[in-house]
Amino acid sequence: MKYNPNEIEAKWQKYWAEHKTFAAKNDSDKPKHYVLDMFPYPSGAGLHVGHPLGYIASDVYSRYKRHQGFNVLHPMGYDSFGLPAEQYAIQTGQRPEDTTSVNIDGGVDKEGKVIAGYRKQLDKIGFSFDWDREVRTSNPDYYKHTQWIFIQLFNSWYNKNTDKAEDISTLTSVFSAEGNGNVNAVCDDNIELFSEDEWNAFAKEQQEKILLQYRLTYLAETEVNWCPGLGTVLANDEIVNGVSERGGYPVIRKKMTQWSMRISAYAERLLQGLNDIDWSESIKESQRNWIGKSVGAMVDFRLQNSESSISVFTTRPDTIFGVTFMTLAPEHELVAQITTPEQKAEVETYIEKTAKRSERERMADVKTISGVFTGAFAEHPFTKEPIPVWIGDYVLAGYGTGAVMAVPCGDERDYAFANFFKGQKGMQEIKNIFANVDISKEAFGSKDNVEIANSDFLNGLNYKEATKKIIEELEKIGQGKGKINYRLRDAVFSRQRYWGEPFPVYYVNGLPQMIDAQHLPIILPEVEKYLPTEDGLPPLGNATIWAWDTKNNEVVNTDLVDNFEIFPLELNTMPGWAGSSWYWMRYMDAKNEGEFASKEALAYWESVDLYIGGSEHATGHLLYSRFWNKFLKDKGFAPTEEPFKKLINQGMILGMSAFVYRLEGTNTFVSKNKINGQAVQPIHTDVSFVNASEELDIEKFKQFREDYKDAEFICEDNGKYIVGREIEKMSKSKYNVVTPDDICNEYGADTLRLYEMFLGPLEQAKPWNTAGISGVFGFLKKLCRLYFDENGLIVTNDAPTKDNLKSLHKTIKKVAEDIESFSFNTSVSQFMICVNELSAQNCHSRAILEPLAIVISPYAPHIAEELWSLLGNTDSIATVTFPVFEPAHLVESDKEYPVSFNGKMRFTINLPLDLTKEQIEEIVMKDERTIKQLDGKTPNKVIIVPGKIINLVG
Q: Which residues are in the Leucyl-tRNA synthetase editing domain (predicted)?
């Protein structure tokens, strides 16, 4: 027999599929364990060897838990809506649903491009996924439930008194009975008060407008990141250095009417919930920073010659007498109102310039100082002194109130701003309000050891005393109050894209109406092109059948809109994070047509026990999914407050890029060691053109691109062209991608799985080096030689030796501990040690090799199944009980002592560990080797440390 991984792996993958070996049950008597991977976006590029790292780790853990007797849910699906598929559709004229389907299932797209297909690639690696529960967020049978959740959010408000979301009907009941004066809700700012009589007298449209100010998802004019090149709004994490991550198009700030999610209602619960989950401290800290809880005060500064005022949130109200100017965000709604005619042109130019910078860029840029004086003045609440009002891009419209009371003596950015514009009209001298503090060179930002000075009734007070006092005084004069603020802002939920979930919304007189849940899903219509319309509407504006017939409850031709029975549908679609904000619940009951999951399934699975995915989702997906989970808990659907008990972020597998060096201005490439200071341009070349000796296959490189066909090469003296090497992110654009298919075809999936786990700790980044794979493949062949040779099975029923049992149980103990602590790399090392020891011991005992196959099966499941079958077992190894570690086999009963004479070891002797010093000495002195060494002499001293050393001196 011979180890043939391709044949073995195909056989067992077919067996698992036919027998549904990994199907989880929703009504099992076994304890449950839910292991989840962050599901992939299925691009046409397919998987590279970096992608499966987390999947292999979760699979090892899932298989181990099955061996322990758990009912394991380990599902997989696809986050299949999104901008990349839409962009590819625009470029190639293909339908996004077609390209997405080919990317998942494999095949040839309309461009003639052969696509491996994510499903086939995943199956080839031998994952124990329950494929009966597969979800695709772009399938109508999935997104009908996303639409349903949106409707629940629309029909809910957040009651601060009960600290939970409630049905909007409970709010209208309060309005009808007593107006809104006593309502304690998370809602829009500046809500106008009304009585119960006024509410009941309002027209239906007016009531709907008021309710939009309270709903958990609502329409509002919002500052967004608008990308004209892509024709859509982008999230902050889709922008890099002021341009779109995809395509590199410029991004500007723009006001648009958008759907938003009132995630800010959950800020405190999102913050406190971090204390109850087992996540890395770095991820928790990222979320804490994003939520950004601040304790301080709201202060109103009245504007001179105006009935308006500027509201400011500050964490340092104790420094109010140090205010020398105010700064508004360029987008602040008051800017246009207060700017004087003399300053108008300068202000408008500055606003236009600022619109081209993203919020993230503005926050990160602490060196550039820019701003413009509006010409307006506010009034200090206590001194009544005029305070000049500026605009500056270091203030963000969405954080706090979009306004800052600038105290240069106590804040570094205010200090830098004041000094930069020192001497200009509208910039006052810096005031020092701290006793015994020198601010001539820098601001004093500390709260510790502060004594307030030059501050009227605050003089002599420390930070805490002054803060308490100033809030009391602000409340007395009606110009402020204490407040807790959060950096977390409501999430924009609209995208001007085609390839996303349609909103279940139509409009009557410009006001949104929800389509009844019984008529869901509202399916994406066909469109001729996926670009915005000529008049700037989103791509759905191109749809000819996209209106809602309220009489027949169906989507009809847009020409039939009469605003009486037939109304226009929403043209925006939901963002990419909509479908991923609840998908783990769908896996619990994926075939349920009537609801997103049954109460019974939700109660059984509860939440995810282990979640593995990339740290890049720290504040996006993870924050939004926690928000949706908490909302669904409030509404009685989700059984737990938090969705993911334990989270592990796998590190990145890095690629080893290869570079050729082109002499600048020429088509000549010089070998690495021949550069000698010449001006060269490093260019990525495909790593498949380079051998293990770093030598470039010049002919393949010439065929790589048309402009390389006539390239000339300056090689080493031996005629070889040597490339440069660099470790970088594995990426198609860097031509350093290694596909798992290639590794599986050459060495087998078990080799790939073991090697990826062997590379290093799961959470650390590590470089890929194909050269190490052959060693792991050799290990698997050596493992097989314990079980069979060229003539067949060589396993015996011989009783195992003490050394055999010791090797096995060391491995059982180590592997179980490693898997529980997610230290997968050291398990692989232990497998190698064990197989080496058993080979040296010439062990072929069934009593050893049968449990060894079980122990290794989570890591190398195909060969484990094959060996298990060869041993005569008829069922799959997948659910066999994991061997029990027996400590007795590791207890040493004897010791191989080194026997030394005057400190030099001359021979060893094996003795029982329970002997006394006297007994050991007697045995050693009678040993023929000792007698020979002493040659008739008597030692001066015999040093014996039981269990350690024997030394005869003199």
A: 288-475
* Residue 469 marked as a ligand binder: no
pTM of the predicted model over 0.70? yes
pLDDT digits (tens, 9 = 90+) for 633-692: 999 999 999 999 999 999 999 999 999 999 999 999 999 999 999 999 999 999 999 998
Q: Give the 3-state secondary structure percentages of the chain, helix then strand then coil, rounded to 5.
A: 40, 20, 40
pLDDT band at residue 534 using 50, 70 and 90 as cut-offs = confident
- Picking from 493, 494, 514, 496, the residue whose alpha carbon sits closest to that of residue 504 is 514
* Other beta carbons within 10 Å of 441: 6
Tokens representing 262? Answer: 């009132």
- What pLDDT, in 10s, does the model give residues 4-29? 999 999 999 999 999 999 999 998 99
491-492 and 894-901 beta bridge pairing: unpaired
DSSP letter at 250?
Answer: B
Burial of 477 per CB tally in 10 Å (0-12, 13-18, 19+): exposed
Q: How far apart, in whole angstroms, are the C-alpha atoms of residue 893 and residue 857?
A: 31
Q: Which residue has the higher pLDDT, 705 or 70?
A: 70
Between strands 554-556 and 547-549, the pairing is antiparallel
Burial 91-104, CB ≥16 within 10 A → b, else e: eeebbbbebbbbbb
Rounded average pLDDT over 319-338: 95
Buried (b) or exposed (e) across 513-538, using 16+ Cβ within 10 A? bebeeeebbbebbebeebebbeeeeb
**Rounded Cα distance, 768 and 614, in Å:** 18
Model pLDDT, residue 237: 65
Is 282 a residue whose pLDDT tops 70?
yes
* All residues at 6 or more sequence positions from 797 whose CB lies less than 8 Å from its CB, including other chains: 845, 846
Task: Assess contact for 792 and 873: CB atoms under 8 A.
Answer: no
DSSP one-letter string for 360-425: HHHHH--S----EEEEEEEE-TTT--EEEEEE-TTS-TTSTTSEEEE-GGG-HHHHHHHHHTTTST
For the chain, the straight-line distance linking the first and the last C-alpha, in angstroms and rounded, comes to: 60
At residue 767, φ and ψ (nearest 5 deg) are: -80, 145
Residue where the block lists tokens 């559709």? 89
